[in-house]
Amino acid sequence: EAVLLEYFVGGGRTLLWAITRDSLRAVRLRIGENDLTRRVSEFRDLISSRGRADELQRVGIDLFRTLLAPAFPGGLPRELIIVPHRVLHYLPFHALMPASGRYLLQDSLVSYLSSASLLQFTREKQAAGASSALAVGNPDLGDPTMNLRYAEREVREVERLFPQATVLVRTDATKGQTRRHLNGQSLVHMATHADLDEEDPMGSALLLRPEAGDTGRLEVQEIFGLSLGANLVILSACDTSLGKLTKGHEIVGLTRAFMYAGTPSVISTLWRVDDRASYELMQAFYQNLRAGHPKGEALRQAQLATLAKYPHPYYWAAYQLTGEPR
């Protein structure tokens, strides 16, 4: 019952393909690249303001009507798989608004892919449950202002729900230790700072505790070279969905690197997340996962619970699932 939406942005036009099990429809949208870039930036700026609710709602409804409504004259589907293009990689579609006071998240399960052809890979790689886990959080970076109090609580929650989990925090959360324990884990949770390098996207990195002989940076170029068996990787750090748009208009960054390394599902973030709200969202996510919800629905329910407590999308909409939602 899923609908796949694939976008093309360029040449002064925006095209959309809506694909179901037995149909394919092409729609030319009434917006060009320059206007689209401006409006996506405006929406992100309004989210980062953590206020300006009336303006946020106006732009959220407008973007929904422009980008999504033309594909669904008969109403929204239960599940959406979105393949963005160019600036749309930076847009949280699940935070767009079908109506006043209502987000797409409340009506549909939304997941993302960088390419429709990845569906074959993600379906083949998906596995049931998590038999082993690695949780890395709040590494000691030698600067008290970089401490992530709630990130450490996040990984302790993983430890509580998965008693056999390998947990690395503070001085133990080194790059060497993390790399040693990555292989053979079915679930990997990274609650750290991330460094996005738009000029050198292969140098973007998760920041771990430095030790003799290395800077502690687990870089995109290294992750591309790994061979992982993880069913799910969670990058509970800031801006982990982001990267540099290549000439092929795909994002080169941490999410793509982990998928290339063999992971069918990656949960990552679109902006600098709030430490406490992220902890509460992840706590709810893992409880949902343990209760038997599929990955995508576990995240959606956690976001809905966070929305109920922190209504502004800044606190819950940064998280998105790329890849297999089951």
Write the topology of this structure.
Elements: E1 2-10, E2 13-19, E3 24-29, H1 33-49, H2 53-67, E4 79-83, E5 109-112, H3 118-125, E6 133-139, H4 149-161, E7 166-170, H5 175-182, E8 187-191, E9 193-195, E10 205-207, E11 217-219, H6 220-224, E12 232-235, E13 243-245, E14 251-253, H7 254-260, E15 265-269, H8 275-290, H9 295-309, E16 319-323
Parallel strand pairs: 1-4, 4-5, 6-7, 6-8, 8-12, 12-15
Antiparallel strand pairs: 1-2, 2-3, 9-10, 10-11, 13-14, 15-16
Helix pairs in contact: 1-2, 4-8, 8-9
Cross-sheet strand order for the largest sheet? 7-6-8-12-15-16
How much helical structure, as a percent, in the residues?
Answer: 25-40%
Report the radius of gyration as a whole number of Å: 19 Å
Number of distinct helices:
9
Q: Care to count the β-strands?
A: 16
Structural class: alpha/beta
Shape: globular
Question: Distance between termini?
Answer: 14 Å
N-to-C SSE string, H for helix and E for strand: EEEHHEEHEHEHEEEEHEEEHEHHE
Q: Explain this structure to me?
A:
- This protein has 326 residues and is of the alpha/beta class.
- 32% of the residues lie in helices and 24% in strands.
- The protein is built from nine helices and 16 strands.
- It has helices at 33-49, 53-67, 118-125, 149-161, 175-182, 220-224, 254-260, 275-290, 295-309; strands at residues 2-10, 13-19, 24-29, 79-83, 109-112, 133-139, 166-170, 187-191, 193-195, 205-207, 217-219, 232-235, 243-245, 251-253, 265-269, 319-323.
- The strands form four sheets. It has a six-stranded mixed β-sheet with strand order 7-6-8-12-15-16, with helices on both faces. A five-stranded mixed β-sheet has the order 3-2-1-4-5. A three-stranded antiparallel β-sheet has the order 9-10-11.
- It is globular, with a radius of gyration of 19 Å.
- The two termini are 14 Å apart.
- Residues 241-250 have low confidence and may be disordered.
